[in-house]
Amino acid sequence: MLLTVVIVLAVVIGFRWYRYVTNAESPYDEVGIELNSRMPAPINKWGCVTLHATFGGALPPYGCQDSADARKWR
């Protein structure tokens, strides 16, 4: 039972993150930003690249900011 709950939770969180990264109307969705910023580095990087391709003219959300200048995408 516990394994089932963990798997379902992982699928729901993963789907919510993927939906934010690929179909977002805005890069500033609070839940999406939080999920993306907590993803492992390679997954976060892919998410930021995808968001940057969609919203290149906007300021980057938390987790996708350059460490030297928060107004630039990394």
Structure description:
With 74 residues, the protein is mostly helical. It has one domain (2-54). The protein has helices at residues 2-23, 30-38, 41-54. Helix 1 crosses helix 2 (30-38). It is elongated. The relative contact order is 0.14.
Tell me roughly what share of residues is in helical segments. Answer: 55-70%
Number of separate strands: 0
Instruction: Name the helix and strand elements from N-terminus to C-terminus, one letter apiece.
Output: HHH
How can the largest sheet be summarized? none
Strand-helix topology:
Blueprint: H1 2-23, H2 30-38, H3 41-54
Helix pairs in contact: 1-2
Keyword list:
74 residues, elongated, single chain, mainly alpha, 61% helix
Short description:
The protein has 74 residues and is mostly helical. The protein has helices spanning 2-23, 30-38, 41-54.
